[in-house]
Design a protein that fits this description.
- By secondary structure, the protein is α+β, with helices and mostly antiparallel strands.
- The protein has 2 domains: about 1-35; about 50-190, Sandwich (Immunoglobulin-like), CATH 2.60.40.
- The chain has 1 helix and 9 strands.
- Strands 1, 2, 3, 4, 5, 6, 7, 8 and 9 form a 9-stranded mixed β-sheet that branches.
- The longest helix is centred in the first third of the chain and has 34 residues, at about 1-35.
- The N and C termini lie far apart (about 95 Å).
- Keywords: Membrane, Transmembrane, Transmembrane helix.
């Protein structure tokens, strides 16, 4: 009789401790969930700081043709283009801008990477020198037969400078995180005077 009572008491205690632990965990997770804030909406006409880069959005449009700023597009392909003025805010020339802008899945296939071109001379993925604003074009090739999007939705990624990283003890830009989202209307075609063969 006492053995049965002891077993029952033990089972209730274990169940009670398990329930209390589950409630505590749910409370902690709920508290973290409540702290999650929506991403900042960035002004499409303002300047955006990302740590390494100062960005000034210019325009977004779709265009067709093989010679769009010299980007190696397929013949007859349609492309989505985002032009932006970029200023390198660091002390060294850099081309660490491949992930500073991420197009939304609704706009382009997330597995497709853009061609990034210096518009003034059609140099593909150049190093940008410190303190010199340069006009760049991010060019995504759109799938054949797809309708051009009405808007371009981008997530802007920022990084933090650390004098020493935890792995190698060297300085650099680390911890990429979203700075906010940017939405621009998509026009049709570039100014032909801007395009360099």
């Amino acid at each position: 009789m006492f053995e049965n009572a002891g077993s029952r008491l033990k089972a209730w205690l274990v169940a009670g401790i398990g329930t209390a632990a589950a409630l505590a965990l749910a409370g902690v997770l709920g508290a973290f969930g409540a702290r999650h804030e929506p991403m900042q909406l960035l002004a499409p006409t303002g300047r955006i700081e990302t740590g390494q880069w100062l960005l000034r959005p210019l325009r977004a449009y779709t265009a067709e043709g093989e010679n769009l700023y010299g980007a190696p597009l397929k013949p007859g392909a349609r492309a989505l283009v985002f032009e932006v003025e970029m200023t390198n805010r660091t002390a060294k020339s850099s081309k660490d801008y491949f992930d500073v802008l991420q197009a939304s899945q609704a706009t382009v296939d997330p597995s497709s990477k853009p061609f990034i071109v210096l518009t003034r001379d059609s140099t593909l993925s150049p190093e940008l020198h410190p303190g010199m604003p340069e006009r760049m074009a991010y060019i995504w090739e759109l799938p054949g037969g797809s309708a051009p999007p009405a808007s371009l939705d981008l997530t802007v990624i920022r990084k933090t400078y650390k004098q020493r990283d935890n792995l190698y003890g060297l300085p650099g830009w680390f911890n990429p995180a979203p700075a906010g989202t940017l939405t621009l209307p998509v026009g049709s075609g570039p100014d032909t005077a801007d395009i360099q063969p």
